[in-house]
Amino acid sequence: MKERGYIERLWREEKYRVLAHSKQHYDEIRELLKQDPSYATVKDKIDEALTITPTTGSTINAFDHMWGYFKNKATANEKEQYLTLKRQFQNKQIDASLIQQFLKNMAEEYEVQYLINSTALYK
């Protein structure tokens, strides 16, 4: 595999985790990928993003992006469950790991390989 392939795989795996930490870094990396960056440059930018403590808002943003894979497939019960978990997380009643587990279960149930390969759910 050429370096560009490794870079694209790295980004596929890390993008939602980066988004949960820093929307700014997420946007910067997306712009960087339009050029011809080295693997090391992209990896360094990802590592830099991951040093930023996620906020409730940035975490919800990443979860909502992942939920987008299911919103047209999910049952009414699954949609309600997601919204309830999200509301509880926003109100600091539950930890993010419960939404993570829910999305992980959804990814497996609906066989969404893109999310199954994501470090946001599987790390």
Question: Would you mind describing this structure in some detail?
Answer:
The protein is mainly α. It has two domains: 3-49; 56-116, no CATH class. Helix content is 69%, strand content 0%. It is built from seven helices and no strands. The radius of gyration is 15 Å and the shape is globular. 26% of the residues are buried. InterPro entries: DUF1722 (IPR013560). Residues 15-121 form the DUF1722 domain. This is Type II DNA modification enzyme.
Short recap of the structure:
The chain has 123 residues and is mostly helical. The chain is built from 7 helices and no strands. The model has no long low-confidence stretch (mean pLDDT 97).
Number of helices: 7
Terminal residue distance: 24 Å
Strand content: under 5%
Summarize the biggest pleated sheet.
Answer: none
Shape: globular
Total of domains: 2
Q: Could you give the count of β-strands?
A: 0
What structural category do the secondary elements indicate? mainly alpha
Q: Spans with pLDDT under 50 lasting ≥5 residues?
A: none
**Percentage of residues in helical conformation:** 55-70%
Radius of gyration: 15 Å
Give the rounded overall mean pLDDT.
Answer: 97
Order of helices and strands: HHHHHHH
Protein name: Type II DNA modification enzyme
Domain DUF1722: 15-121
